[in-house]
Amino acid sequence: MAHLSIIGTGNMGQAIAALAGRGGHAVQLLGSDDAGVPITGDIVVLAVPYPAVRTVLAERGDALAGKVVVDITNPLDFETFDSLTVAADGSATEEIAAALPGSRVLKAFNTNFASTLASGSLGALTTTVLIAGDDTDAKADLAAVVDSGGLRALDAGSLKRARELEALGFLQITLAANEKVSWTGGLGVVA
């Protein structure tokens, strides 16, 4: 059984907490009022908007050393919805990994909407969570949480693949914001 600490109590934080709970894992859900509460999980999910990550790292960076840190952010310009706010050859996840050299940083959940995490399906497909990172054991630990919650985990490669996952997340959000796909739908993986 894994123990997750999820920083962020919005739709995504709650959906990930429910997923982990379905798999029988312990979950600590931390909101903005819980800044002084110690992180107890071995897997820490950053379920906050990308602009809030800097604050979380400033307040809790030392407590994340030695932990698996999962970045779910999509670093897009929320005013225009027309671009990512990170360099074209980088990613938000790589920035987080650079700021947390003592942590094992992964990218996951950013290509999923909360509704598909909660329902476990995307149309006729089982919801797939794409996971990128450089630490094989960390990816396996997160994949076990995803799989035990009834979803499908898929290893998307090294941490460098976070940039493609962020581009895919950006595309999906743009399509939903422009009512081309529904917020209860999205892009699926057929293997």
UniProtKB/TrEMBL annotation:
State the name under which the record lists this protein.
Diguanylate cyclase
Please name the Pfam families in this protein's record.
F420_oxidored (PF03807)
* Stretches assigned to the Pyrroline-5-carboxylate reductase catalytic N-terminal domain: 41-75
InterPro entries reported in the protein's UniProt record: NAD(P)-bd_dom_sf, P5C_Rdtase_cat_N, STEAP_metalloreductase
The root-end lineage is:
Bacteria, Bacillati, Actinomycetota, Actinomycetes, Propionibacteriales
Keyword terms, alphabetized? Oxidoreductase
Single Gene Ontology MF annotation: oxidoreductase activity
